[in-house]
């Protein structure tokens, strides 16, 4: 494909309004780039155009997993443009225009690059640029290194610009600076690949005999046309025809390969089955699975049983290792590289950080003897092995020089918490439970712990342990969930840090049990309620009948006027604090029922919680979720305690 054709179509693509229209136009472009019957590109290269065009559309020369970069900065690009634009143009002219127009493509397109002679030495000349030639030249440019590489890169770019029409120059400038901005994102390209190569033929779509496996038509789902059972062109406006299944197959192949170009070619040549056959490959990083913020209650509510892991405060690392004599697994034999691969380490952005972390490389090589892809966190530790703040890891993580010296200064440890591949098996679709077993099998005790918990108190206890050990907190994961690369879903929750605490008045308590029978255990909390006062229940109405329901709720009936209850706290109180609270509150008991007592409002305590929810259980109409005792507010009298108005604000209702 000619580069000019791509550049012009990209320009038109950028001008299209509407997601479906953009996807369809991108699909057309991919279909054309990938059509082997392209008359003026009868050589083999026409096949390769598809992968290059797909990457170029996303502003990439290399796939995302590839650690090569062009390493062309804005200054170098401006210099190359200036040189190609002629003697009267300087890099600062380009810079000024850039400041005025704000976008390098428009600036490059405004120069006339055609007028110079004698450019053949720089790869210039009269022949039209092809997509393949631009790609090849840029790959050569990326391979430049060492002395003089900067000026060789400038020459190479200059040579390309001199051959550019305005739209080619705009495309090239945006491509080398990674500023493509065509309004064609990864999701659009994914859908366009499905549309171009996996959608049913429009001529078949309306036929009844094709409709049995034609769930495609209503599976267009997320788009406007799902009311149209036949999905044909009789609806208003254009529609996507590729099935959800096809889009999912493309998405899946992208997750495991991280290469849009490769996936487009696969889709064209081998269809859905070919895409499904794509697998992970040791040595080719995938995107990390990400977490959302959530609470212990969220985790218990959604997962039932929760996999609780320590949240390590370091830098994410993906470990790829194929020990001696073991071939990396790959479904496609032609694509195998049956070579041993020493441990390679990749950052969350899939940069290769192996050289900076030699002790992690050694650590993995010593322990692992099957091919693996592991996910984990590298943490800086002190001499005792205790974690150091995250900033310390950064001193090591991307370091290219003085690695050995820094190794003496900052020690690192790997906490591997997941296993994506082990010994020939891709594990992405396996539940976390199983992946963790494989992790243990591969790494032994060096695997990070995973404990299962189904109650928030156990999670709170695990969190305290993690914090006490100097870690950041806990991650709460669904033990049944697959590993979804790049996805920030609800299957992994990072526990939200506590919100503001509340200073509440203790208005009731329940005696403890067993060895704590002499101490109060659970405390009823209230806030000031300026709005409601005199119609509070009569305290003498407190009866001795504590049966049927929660005894502490009876104590709530004895609320002093001007207070509203918001919850109970039993967590986070040491034996010593319980003794102290009992001693201070016992003289203020004003009513008793079974094991429950009510107090005069005399003591303010600070409580933490995960969130405040509306609730009919307490008279405030709100309940603290996971209240945790923080301490007694010695400095506050009950008149200084928090009010119902503040609770409303904290709950987001005001
Ligand atoms: P955040 O950076 O706050 O979004 O938290 C998510 C990050 O926590 C992940 O990207 C990891 O780098 C890190 N992390 C630490 N421990 C774990 C763990 N056990 N599971 C998953 N991620 C973890």
How does this structure look, described?
Strands 11, 12, 13, 14, 15, 16 and 19 form a seven-stranded antiparallel β-sheet that branches. The chain has 654 residues and is an alpha+beta fold. α7 (131-143) packs antiparallel against α8 (149-161). β11 and β12 (520-528) form a beta hairpin. 36% of the residues lie in helices and 18% in strands. The structure holds adenosine monophosphate.
Structure at a glance:
The protein is of the alpha+beta class. Helix content is 36%, strand content 18%. Residues 288, 290-291, 309-312, 316, 377, 417, 475, 494 line the site of adenosine monophosphate.
Total helical elements: 22
Rg calculated over all Cα atoms: 32 Å
Q: Main sheet?
A: 7 strands, antiparallel
Strand coverage percent? 15-25%
Large-scale geometry: elongated
Low-confidence sequence ranges: 207-233, 328-338, 533-549
List bound small molecules.
adenosine monophosphate
- Looking at the chains present, what oligomeric state does this protein adopt? single chain
Distance between the termini: 60 Å
| Helix and strand composition category | alpha+beta
Mean pLDDT: 85
Helix content: 25-40%
């Amino acid at each position: 494909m000619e580069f000019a054709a791509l550049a012009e179509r990209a320009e038109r693509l950028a001008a299209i309004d509407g997601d479906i229209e953009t996807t369809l136009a991108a699909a057309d472009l991919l279909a054309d780039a990938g059509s082997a019957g392209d008359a003026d590109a009868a050589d083999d290269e026409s096949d390769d155009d598809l992968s290059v065009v797909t990457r170029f559309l996303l502003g990439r020369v290399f796939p995302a997993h590839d650690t090569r970069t062009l390493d062309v900065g804005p200054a170098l690009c401006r210099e190359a443009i200036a040189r190609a634009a002629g003697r009267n143009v300087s890099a600062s002219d380009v810079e000024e225009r850039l400041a005025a127009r704000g976008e390098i493509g428009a600036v490059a397109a405004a120069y006339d690059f055609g007028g110079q002679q004698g450019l053949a030495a720089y790869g210039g000349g009269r022949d039209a640029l092809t997509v393949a030639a631009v790609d090849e030249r840029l790959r050569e440019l990326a391979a430049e290194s060492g002395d003089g590489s900067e000026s060789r890169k400038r020459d190479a770019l200059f040579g390309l610009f001199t051959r550019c029409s305005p739209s080619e120059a705009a495309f090239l400038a945006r491509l080398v600076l990674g500023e493509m901005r065509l309004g064609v994102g990864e999701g659009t390209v994914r859908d366009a690949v499905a549309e171009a190569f996996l959608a049913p033929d429009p001529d078949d779509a309306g036929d009844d005999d094709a409709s049995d496996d034609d769930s495609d038509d209503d599976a267009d789902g997320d788009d406007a046309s799902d009311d149209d059972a036949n999905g044909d062109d009789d609806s208003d406006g254009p529609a996507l025809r590729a099935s959800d299944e096809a889009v999912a197959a493309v998405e899946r192949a992208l997750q495991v390969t991280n290469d849009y170009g490769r996936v487009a070619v696969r889709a064209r040549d081998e269809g859905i089955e070919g895409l499904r056959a794509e697998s992970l490959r040791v040595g080719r990083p995938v995107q990390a699975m990400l977490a959302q913020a959530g609470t212990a209650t969220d985790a218990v509510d959604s997962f039932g049983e929760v996999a609780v892991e320590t949240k390590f405060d370091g830098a994410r690392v993906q470990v790829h290792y194929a020990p001696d004599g073991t071939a990396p697994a790959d479904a496609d034999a032609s694509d195998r590289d049956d070579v041993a691969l020493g441990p390679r380490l990749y950052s969350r952005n899939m940069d290769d950080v192996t050289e900076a972390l030699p002790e992690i490389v050694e650590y993995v090589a010593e322990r692992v003897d099957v091919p693996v892809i592991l996910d984990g966190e590298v943490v800086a530790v002190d001499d005792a092995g205790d974690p150091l703040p995250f900033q310390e890891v950064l001193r090591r993580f991307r370091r290219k020089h003085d690695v050995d010296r820094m190794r003496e200064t900052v020690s690192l440890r790997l906490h591997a918490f997941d296993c994506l591949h082990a010994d020939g098996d891709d594990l992405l679709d396996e539940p976390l439970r199983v992946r963790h077993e494989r992790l243990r099998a591969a790494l032994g005790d060096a695997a990070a712990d995973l404990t299962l918990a189904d109650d928030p108190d156990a999670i709170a206890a695990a969190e305290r342990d993690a914090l006490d050990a100097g870690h950041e907190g806990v991650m709460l994961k669904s033990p049944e969930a697959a590993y979804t690369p790049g996805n920030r879903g609800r299957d992994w929750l990072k526990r939200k840090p506590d919100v503001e605490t509340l200073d509440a008045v203790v208005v009731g308590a329940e005696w403890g049990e067993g060895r704590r029978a002499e101490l109060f255990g659970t405390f009823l909390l209230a806030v000031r309620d300026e709005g409601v006062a005199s119609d509070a229940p009569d305290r003498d109405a407190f009866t001795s009948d504590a049966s049927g329901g929660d005894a502490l709720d009876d104590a709530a009936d004895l609320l002093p006027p001007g207070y509203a209850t918001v919850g109970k706290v039993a967590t986070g109180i040491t034996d010593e604090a319980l003794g102290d609270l009992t001693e201070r509150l016992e003289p203020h008991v004003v009513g008793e029922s079974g094991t429950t007592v009510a107090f005069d409002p005399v003591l303010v305590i600070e409580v933490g919680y995960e969130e405040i929810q509306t609730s009919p259980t307490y008279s405030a109409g709100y309940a603290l979720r996971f209240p945790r005792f923080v301490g007694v507010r010695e400095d506050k009298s009950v008149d200084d305690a928090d009010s119902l108005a503040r609770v409303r604000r904290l709950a987001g209702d005001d």
